[in-house]
Amino acid sequence: MASKQETRVARLKDLLTHQDRIHLRDVAAALNVSEMTVRRDIDAHESALIILGGYVFLAPTRSGYRLAAEGSALTKAKMAAARNAAALLVPNSTIFIDSGTTLLHLASAMPPGMKLTIVTTSLNVATRVSGNENLRLVLMGGLYHPASDCFISGSGGETPQDLGINQAFFSAGGYDSDRGASCYQFHEAQIKRTILKQSKQNYLVLDSSKIGLLQPVVFAQPAAFDAIITEFGDA
To answer: Which of 19, 78, 146, 205 has the fewest other C-beta atoms within 10 Å?
Structure first.
């Protein structure tokens, strides 16, 4: 017998066969649950669903990288890695949260009541933290790239010179002990490199299945990171 969560997800997927997107609040109303429950259903269930800008979509397949496919695979490991990263957060600091499915879980793992300034290029991360009154949000603008869920400015991803970042949490499609951290898209690498230079502490957060992999674009050498965080802790 299907669980309540599986039943809700199946119903949501059926609703999305009749329209291309549904607002999160309308999904919650249709399923008679809270918006947070809908988010948890999508995060935890291995389904081809994605939330962008407050809307739920059936995720399309994209060249090289499918965000929803990444989100559904190894969900528990990603959530555990995010919780380990959250343990490093320092109250009243300014942090950068990269785009990517693992760090979306970090946005949900913030310790209750902790005051932070969140800097991000990710629409999904911004949507996740925007309702928390303890978190000040800085969404870096530019052209939105849906394949990697990030905004990149036309000038190459430079950030304002007066933007002081205490801690930066990066995602990657692979980490090789010799070559370093790599990703799928060239535009992702631009902003990652810029933030790496500006942040006082840099952390790479990924599930252990990414260790040993090398993706098309290397954006940082191993020495660039203060720690590599996986579901098992500091790698």
So the answer is: 19
Alpha-carbon gap, residue 23 to 38, rounded angstroms: 11
Q: In Å, how far are 29, 71, 90, 98, 130 from 118, measured between CA atoms?
A: 29, 21, 12, 10, 10
Give per-residue pLDDT as tens, 67-96. Answer: 555 555 578 889 999 999 999 999 999 999
Work out the mean pLDDT of the chain and round it to a whole number. 83
Proportion of the chain in helix, strand, coil states, percent, rounded to 5: 35, 25, 40
CB 148 within 8 A of CB 219: no
CATH 1.10.10.10 domain locations along the chain: 4-59
Amino acid making up residue 121: T
**CATH architecture of the domain covering 71-234:** 3-Layer(aba) Sandwich (3.40)
Contact 6, 45 (CB under 8 A): yes
Give the global pTM: 0.68
What is the CATH T-level fold of the domain 4-59, as seen in this structure? Answer: Arc Repressor Mutant, subunit A (1.10.10)
CB-based contacts of 235, cutoff 8 Å, min separation 6: 208, 211, 227, 228, 229
Max CA distance (Å), the chain: 56
DSSP letter assigned to residue 209: G
Name the pairing type of β-strands 143-145 and 150-152: antiparallel
User: Could you give the C-alpha distances from 203 to 2, 165, 228, in angstroms and in order?
Assistant: 39, 12, 6
Q: State the Cα angle at 235 between 157 and 79, rounded to 5°.
A: 70
**Closest by CA position to 84, among listed 214, 221, 208:** 208
